[in-house]
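Cross-posted from the bioinformatics board.
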Amino acid sequence: MDPLILSRIQFGANISFHILFPTITIALGWVLLFFKLRYNATNDSAWMRAYFTWVKVFALSFAMGVVSGVTMSFQFGTNWPGYMEHVGNIAGPLLAYEILTAFFLEAAFLGIMLFGFRRVSNRVHTLATVLVAGGTTLSAFWIIALNSWMQTPAGFEMIDGKAHAVDWWAIVFNPSMPYRLVHMLLASGLTVSFLVAGLSALRYLNGDRSESMWKALRTGVFTAAVLIPIQIFAGDQHGLNTLEHQPQKIAAMEANWNTGPNVPLVLFALPDEAAKENRFEVAIPDGASLVLRHSTSGVVPGLNDYPGNHPPVFPLFWSFRIMVGTGLLMLAVSWSAAFFLKRRHSLPKPLAMLMVPMALSGWLATLAGWYTTEIGRQPWLVTGVLKTADAVGPVAGSHVALTLAVYLTLYVLLLIAYLGVLVHLALKAAKDGDSSPLPGVMKTAMSQPAAGE
Amino acid sequence: MTFDWPTALPLIFAGLMGLAILIYVILDGFDLGIGILFAAAEDAEQDTMIAAIGPFWDANETWLVLAVGLLLVAFPLAHGVILTALYIPVFVLLVGLILRGVAFDFRAKVPSGKKHRWNRIFFLGSVIASLAQGYMLGVYVLGLDVGLGGMAFGVLVAFCLAAAYAAMGAAWVIYKTEGELQKKAVRWLRTALVLTALGMAAVSLATPFASPRIFDKWFVWPQMLYLSPLPILSALLFLWLWRQTFHLPKPDDRHALTPFLTLAAIFALGFAGLAWSFYPFVVPDKLTIWQAASATESLAIILAGTVVVLPIIIFYSFYAYRVFGGKATDLTYD
């Protein structure tokens, strides 16, 4: 097979596997901080039990994120040497700042956060939690800045085929960056809310009615219920930003073949790129014009304006719909669950059973969203600057195929093991309930054994 | 050579990258080494050994990300050339690092019946990662030549580095534990030292013959004279440490950290020798650090950040090591 396609599949597989875990750790850090602060304020040990259950999930997710992230830092060079060759002057400093300001911060204080409970004072432990959560978020900031620059490059000039920085502020805060960052941080918040709610629902179904289960369940459900409408609004704004800067992406997402007014909103279709038409189309008349231009006669860009220079239509059309569909399902589930928890102080069994698989709904929506925006950038690696085909390395297709097969096997096995552990941890917490041994929480540190003592 | 930024920045970054690699090799060296020694340890000892590295391994591995990151951002051309040439070994290294990294966490969280499986994966991952690093180093030394001779040399370096990491791991166990396990670690250290010394001697003998370029660099008067302290000092430290192993552990656990520091010094000396052999190339015989460097304005902005952040990183890394100082106890989340 073609090394270009194989390299894309390999990098896509790695980055898809990787993003699952930062999506959890970015927001879970803040959720853990919330548990900790509630404990500090109320002295209610149930908060600390919730903390200790979820800090294990954090540790495991963090490790998965680290190892898959290390893989990525090598793959820039092994699979895409042309990328750094042409835009290394821009991408380099952004990645360097991510490593320097975020990775070390997280890594150094993670040890204290995970294992330092008896070794430092409660105050320092809380501070370590803040620094880890801040580190994961800062890391998202830098990597989203770089990704957004690849989507909507700004603040640079080309000299002899290489990008050179002119204005770092414009590079970091490029046109799509604020929208993408907000969209991603909210996605992380929703992923974690549904994960926490879903695993708590699993405990609930197993007969666990402990205080720590209720606290985690409420935290998950209410956070999700608050975040999802904000996310729908933010996603809409992000879409309008894409319409302005990457109209060809919108055209493919909406499977709109001809530029013009009164464009329908296609709900279902099988886009056929060869025939340039949609089969089995189900559409709302004027819908796309209304959504994108806020007027039925609004002109929506069509694929005919970008012959041979637009992303593939079928995957974009469908990944976008999967994301939006999942989002709407999240809205329905989180609001119903919030209603029952608030008004009835209970959870109907069918709803709880629905919430368990919904624990992974954030992953599905996040992946579908990233596929939409990343495939939507094709055929460019950096929009208007560097084509994906011009960045691939001189590695033989057979090598890429072999390593791809091993990576995929490894990732599938690790994912199964990871989900198995999450379920195991939830069931164990359900069994222990409020009787799980609670570690002593101390205001002051234990005395430190000096080296050689 | 007149001083100006376009000349100085690549040099500074080569130095920083070298420093990051050295710190990585020393720090991740001991936790990879502990993974290798896992095969020789009992169940309970394995838990203590994990406790001795648990809070640190993640930060240790971040130095690898920094080293590769600096190669990527400061010498993008070299990053592409080196990593595409080492495609398969890099892949093997990554599989090893992935396996051991997650095994760390899984072994503590899976139902107890499955713990053994993850212990084995931790051992395997550590061995694979160490061997892959050594192999890459060997092939790199020969200028990324992957002929049959180059591969054989790579395999030789791979075993040498794995033995050296095992020695580092044993030295760290001596520092972090007490009682039977500590005595056992002294015996591990002795065995690993013999293997490392044999390996190093073989590599040192083979290198100048395998690489005429390095031969020319090593055996030229008067450079030979300036270079001679490196091998002599390394050999002396080796012998001294070897003798020390017969007196460890000492009463009151004095000098428990000495073996580790001595090994770190030997690593630093070896590393200085390598740096001398390559300068000014970042891809041997192909690209100098100036040819491969990023644009000056990009290097400048990274350097500005590095100067501010690196001391802070070193400061809080020390703090983290201090918090978990002393003998390793059971590692729990509470």
